[in-house]
User: What shape does this take?
Amino acid sequence: MQRHIPADVVRIALDKAEGFPFERFAIAFYGSLIGTSFTPLGGTKDGGADARDGTLYEDGTRSEHYYQASVEADAQAKIRRTVVRLRDPKRLTYLTSRTVKYSDRIERALTDELDVTIDIRDGDYIALHVNDDASTVLAFDEHLRHYTEFLRQVGASTLITPSRHIRSPAVYVFLSNEIERRQGD
Assistant: This one.
């Protein structure tokens, strides 16, 4: 049985993810999700895009369909700059770790404005689909899991250790709270 990653854990990892780790995750995650491979564009092929603005990828099976992953806050501005740099793209899928409010409205507006089909896959989309199959879970584990390791220590501290008479020291905490409650404190 496949392990389930809670949506809250995914959101924490996405919020903490930096540019390059998120880009690597996005390409592994989305490529396995839609069943395609991506070819990174560089040099003059990407129309002047550079690492500062995020790496562009082209669908290995469909020319003129580009993918970009970014952690930039302003998705609309990022998409506009990317489309301007590309030479006649037909479609751009933008993957972001952030939540894009009204993404469907923004997709329509940018599609009309830029005459390029725009698809936005934001953090909410990722959290919804990260458990779709073993490959998407693996992409999370390989690229983003380390951002959530601190959560393993939350609640791991035990002030009262188990004894041979009591397996769960939590009963002591419960009884202590009950005594305080009944005393009116």
Observations:
- The mean pLDDT is 84.
- The longest strand covers residues 65-70.
